[in-house]
Amino acid sequence: MKKITLFVLLLTVTLQFTKAQEVVTNESIIQMKELGFDETIILSKINSSDVDFDSSISALSKLKESGVSSEVIALVMQKAQFSTKSKTGIYYLGDDDTLKPILASVFSGTNQNAAAQQLVSGLINAKVKSQLPKRTSNNVISSRSPEFTFIFDPDTGADNMQNFQGKQPGLFNWWFRVASSPNEFVLVKMRVKKSKNLREVITSKSNMFTSSNGIDPKASLPFTIETIGNNKFTVVPESLEPGEYCFIYQGNVPQGRTNQSVFDFSIK
User: Fold this and answer.
1) Which of 3, 110, 149, 264 could form a disulfide with 246 if both were Cys (CB 3.0 to 4.6 A apart)?
2) What pLDDT, in 10s, does the model give residues 30-52?
3) pLDDT (tens digit, 9 = 90+) per residue, 199-225?
4) How far apart are CA 80 and CA 46, in angstroms?
């Protein structure tokens, strides 16, 4: 009878673990260990699944007390910083080698030079400059060769995004539920206006012949993209000089949404 019960439990757990949307947790690892799964299977499951691990000392101690191997625990620690289901957004690698979220900032206003355009019969560009308060970002990065992690959750439908509207910081933002790649963002250096205590970036241009919205491709800074699995990407810009920068979403904006926020940071 005990063998039959154990077989049913093993079959149930196996079926649960094969569901496409399952999220593996610390409890999942302990359960697999107690049911006799060997280390190779546990490691494979972690690497092929979405995860939501707790890497606190108490949580790791519980794994150790449950007989989980050091190799599995090391992978849990590594994957903990890439948990997906509640951590969509842009992160940077801090000095302590942990991922820190870039808090989104909302444009405080715009500045237009349309009057100057009219004086010369529209022969020059009228520029719209979107502005952020303060001369420096709250997100300060010490490295001039920073590494960013973009985490998306495109499986969540747009109709479910109203529950996350307006939430900061970088968690459940609609950008990361509509977009699926860092290619839909641009990186740009912001101009600092010390006398006005603000930062600004040109977000549209127009003259009597043409008009364009978004960041000028000439102002966009290049970066490399590496896929690390489960809708996660590593983004590495070319070496950045000290200054103020931001990532701006340039993809399609869902109906009822506005694109008035940027992911700003300072390079020191």
Assistant:
1) 264
2) 999 999 999 999 999 988 887 88
3) 999 988 776 666 677 788 899 999 999
4) 11
Peptide bond between residue 169 and the one before it cis (omega within 30 degrees of 0): yes
CA distance 163 to 159: 9
Terminal C-alpha separation, the chain: 66
Bridge partners (DSSP) listed for residue 14: none
Which of residues 162 and 253 earns the better pLDDT score?
253
What burial letters (b/e) apply to 171-197, b meaning 16+ CB within 10 Å? bbbbbbbbbbebebbbbbbbebeeeee
The DSSP secondary structure of 206-247, one letter per residue, reads E-SS-EEES--GGGEEPEEEEEEETTEEEEEESP--SEEEEE
Locate the domains of the chain by residue range.
2-80, 89-267
Compute the distance between CA of residue 96 and CA of residue 245 in angstroms, rounded to an integer. 22
More confident residue, 84 or 150: 150
- Cα(102)–Cα(148) distance, integer angstroms: 9
Contacts of residue 42, Cβ cutoff 8 Å, sequence gap at least 6: 29, 32, 33, 68, 72
The residue assigned the tokens 């340039």 is 250
Alpha-carbon distance 57 to 39, whole Å?
21
Which residues lie below 8 Å from residue 217, measured CB to CB, with a gap of 6+? none
For 6, 11, 201, 208, 211, the CA distances from 83, given in Å and listed in that order, are 31, 26, 32, 49, 41
Q: Which of 98, 19, 18, 87 is nearest to 52 (CA)?
A: 87
d(C-alpha 88, C-alpha 25), whole Å: 17
From residue 195, alpha-carbon distances to 80, 112, 135, 152 in Å are 43, 18, 9, 38
Rounded Cα gap, residues 148 and 265, in angstroms? 11
- CA-CA distances (angstroms) from residue 254 to 150, 157, 226? 20, 11, 26
